[in-house]
Amino acid sequence: MHVYARPSGLLQNGHGVASSPPGSPSPRIIRNARSSTGGGGHTRSAARMVHTGSGALSQGPPRTFLQKLTISLLTFFLRRPGVLLLAPFIYFTGMVLYIGGSSMELPRFQPRHIPGSYYRSDEVFRNLWPAMQRADVSTAHGVLAAWEYPKEGMGYRPCLDDLHHGSFEGLPLSNGYILVEANGGLNQQRSTICNAVAVAKLMNATLIIPLFHFNSVWKDPSVFGDIFDEEHFINSLAQQVRILKELPKEVMSRFDNISMIQRVKVKAWSLPRYYLETALPLLKQHGVVRFTPFANRLAYDGIPEVIQKLRCFANFEALRFAPPIATIAQLLVKRMAAKSASTNGNYVAIHLRYEQASLADMVAFSRCVYEGDQEEKVRLDNARERGWRGKFNRTGRVQATPEEIRRDGKCPLTPVEVGMMLRGMGFSNTTQIFLAAGKIYNEEESMEPLRRMFPYLETKQTLLSPEEYAPFEGYSSRLAAIDYTVCLHSEVFVTTQGGNFPQIMMGHRRFLNKGHSKTINPDKRSLVKLMDNPKIKWEKFAGHLEEMLRHIDSKGLAFRKSLPVLPTQLFQNPKASLYTCPVPECMCSENPNSIETELQDSE
Questions:
Q1: With CB atoms 3.0 to 4.6 Å apart as the test, which of 48, 141, 157, 177 could cross-link to 145 if both were Cys?
Q2: Contact at 8 Å (CB) between 210 and 194?
Q3: Which residue ranges in the chain fall short of pLDDT 70?
Q4: Cα–Cα distance between 368 and 355 in angstroms, integer?
Q5: How far apart are CA 280 and CA 261, in angstroms?
Q6: Residue 223: what pLDDT?
Q7: Three-class SS state of 427
Q8: Closest by alpha carbon to 416, among 439, 383, 440?
């Protein structure tokens, strides 16, 4: 027992010394008491001793749990000062938990607006429409003044004449038969066919007319002969490659079905070495092989020049549309030219990808946001699920936001955006326009502004009678072939979204137009920023787009292969497809001396 806790009158050291008067024990006695105890329990008991009313010391009431917790926490923090640095975090966390449990909401901070992130084109149109109506039509460039290039003597011409020489009998003995399955839409099938011709030439094989894979998106059961002229295709290539409509019966009799034929799996963008070292031995062993899938299975670089020219020849000359398609397509071209008499038969063709064609919903696939309301979200989510079965909802899939997609220029242009762009570039409201498209998304509402800006707008349905249109209705590839022809012969072609159609189209137009694509392929990253300002003035808007058109014109002449020094009138695009940029492998300069002189002057 501690000394200051003894009862009154108790003798200390046996001498009968009276206890201290009532009051607090001296600090010295407390210190002695603490030091004399071995455990903390005695110390804490002593610290709780208090004086009673009679002057004796006694133990006070026990502490509550809250008091014990408070003392423990204070002791912990006083002994570890560094932990106090966490106090603001603990306080903030407590406040968030408290506020979250109440009816109050935390303030929401709006992110900084990045130009081009959101669709505001409808607002821009409402602002600019009065100025468009007042604009002087005489200042418009129009169809006839759209292109400045190529300069006189600086164009290119096809140089594939050497492929017309030779004979079927002069070909070496065939190593066997190859079968190819072409998948995708019309123009992906087109490039696959041309690559198959090239591989057949490399392997000295007989090509069987490619099979068309039935695509669940395009839903077109057409075969090769329904779309392309088989006889012309076989005969025009006979001097270079053997082509048969089907596998000979004696060969096919060895197999129960085509799937039993030796399959050769080819990596994308394979070089000739793979076909010669891996596929050719299998062909010689089995006599017949099939390549599936075959889209993009032949590289564009590292290919012998003669094979490159053969690919161009197959694409631009051997592949012609079947007579029923060619006949109706040429009729449409003539009718568009007749309506464009004031511009010498020249018209504008727009490939509009703002489509909603059953499962092939381009708007849904792009994941872009337009109206932004709940109805649009539900409609597009349902379209994605129908067409791509959870592709966009896979666990762990990292996806760009709709805002990022739009800023990156990957959203299909809407009809109002296309109209404003063309008016800004100087095309008047009297311009004759052919619209190549499937069913337009939200057609009645979205097409109204475009028709207001360009009232002379035509489609297949407006140019053809119901009887003329009926044989092609429901066949997406055949309708695409008709659109292809009308676009090919236009003076100005406008592409609004990437894809195989515009890429093949630009190359074919270069092949026919001295190397110039005569195509408006807008810089959509700049365009979305321009159309994100509802208060922009017409003069500024039109000025930007006129400059864009001049830049597009200068890039119309594109050179695919790299050169040490590039002629000033050519835009270099080494990553492009051969079918998009046939210069220089398949086209030669109209004036070689002028090119050589320019190269020498620039050295």
A1: 141
A2: no
A3: 1-61, 77, 81-87, 89-112, 136-141, 165-169, 215-218, 356-365, 372-374, 376, 380, 383-398, 562-570, 592-603
A4: 13
A5: 15
A6: 95
A7: coil
A8: 440
Going by C-alpha positions, the residue among 440, 473, 127 that lies closest to residue 328 is 473
Q: Which residue has the tokens 């002379």?
A: 456
Q: Yes or no: say if 184 and 295 are a contact pair by the CB < 8 Å rule.
A: yes
- Per-residue confidence (pLDDT) for residue 217, from 0 to 100: 61
Longest dimension (CA), the chain: 142
432: left (phi over 0), alpha (psi -120 to 50) or beta: beta
DSSP-derived 3-state class of residue 266: coil
202 contacts 178 by C-beta, under 8 angstroms: no
Q: In a 10 Å sphere around its CB, with 0-12 CB exposed, 13-18 middle and 19+ buried, how is residue 209 labelled?
A: buried
pLDDT given for residue 254 in this prediction: 94
Helix (H, G, I), strand (E, B) or coil at 440: strand
Spatial neighbors of 593 by CB under 8 A, at least 6 apart, are none
CB 161 within 8 A of CB 580: no
Q: Distance between CA atoms of 514 and 547, rounded to whole angstroms? A: 23
Extract the runs of DSSP E, i.e. beta strands, from 409-544: 433-436, 457-458, 492-495, 519-520
Q: What is the pLDDT of residue 55?
A: 45
Q: How far, CA to CA in Å, does 286 sit from each of 175, 251, 258?
A: 10, 10, 14
Instruction: Give CA–CA dist 230/228, Å, rounded.
Output: 6
Give the span between the Cα atoms of 112 and 109, in whole angstroms.
Answer: 9
Q: What is the pLDDT of residue 440?
A: 81
Phi, psi of 440 (to 5 degrees): -75, 140
The residues near 346 (Cβ < 8 Å, ≥ 6 apart) are: 143, 144, 337, 340, 490, 491, 492
Residue bearing tokens 């198959």 = 196
Tell me the pairing of strands 348-351 and 433-436: parallel
User: 389 with 448: CB under 8 angstroms?
Assistant: no
DSSP string, 102-140: SS--PPPPPPPPPTTSS--HHHHHHHHHHHHHHS-GGG-
State the pLDDT at residue 151: 78
Do the beta carbons of residue 349 and residue 329 sit within 8 Å?
Answer: no
Could you tell me where the beta strands, DSSP code E, fall in 391-548? 433-436, 457-458, 492-495, 519-520
- CB-based burial of residue 462 (10 Å sphere; 0-12 exposed, 13-18 middle, 19+ buried)? exposed
pLDDT computed for residue 63 by the predictor: 73
The amino acid that residue 339 corresponds to is K
Task: Check: pTM over 0.85? Answer yes or no.
Answer: no
pLDDT of residue 185: 85
Give the side-chain half-sphere CA count within 13 A for 534: 7
Per this entry, what is the length of the chain?
Answer: 603
Alpha-carbon gap, residue 83 to 71, rounded angstroms:
16
Burial class (CB within 10 angstroms; exposed 0-12, middle 13-18, buried 19+) of 337: middle
User: 370-405: buried (b, 16+ CB within 10 Å) or exposed (e) per residue?
Assistant: beeeeeeeebbeebbeebeeeeeeeeeeeeeebbeb
% of the chain surpassing 90 pLDDT: 54
Contact call for residues 287 and 255 (beta carbons, < 8 A): no
